[in-house]
Structures are given as C-alpha cells and as structure tokens.
Design a protein that fits this description.
mainly alpha
C-alpha cells in the first residue's frame, strides 16, 4: 500500500513542479526540479521493499 501512495505522491509532485517549471521556463528552475525529481525517485526506490506498518 505504501508503494501505491508513494507513486501517487511522485506523480502529483512531478505534475505540480512540471507546471511551475513550464510556466516560468528558466533553466535554473529546470535544474532544481530535475534534482528534486531524481532525489524523490531514489527515496521511492529505497523505500519500495520496506514493510507496511
């Protein structure tokens, strides 16, 4: 169940940050968004095998 909520949260974060980055359209913001998405993906990958509590 935790994996599904993590994927839902990841999709919502990508949608929100993508909309902001497209609207502002600055390369520095794209870099920050990319770093945030990569870190989120790493955290989600590491948490995928943790048991639900």
């Amino acid at each position: 169940m935790k994996l599904w909520f993590g994927l839902l949260g990841a999709a919502m974060m990508i949608a929100f940050l993508g909309a902001v980055a497209i609207k502002v359209n600055e390369i520095a913001l794209w870099v920050v968004v990319a770093i945030g998405v990569v870190l989120m993906g790493i955290d989600l990958w590491q948490a995928r095998d943790e048991p639900d509590r």
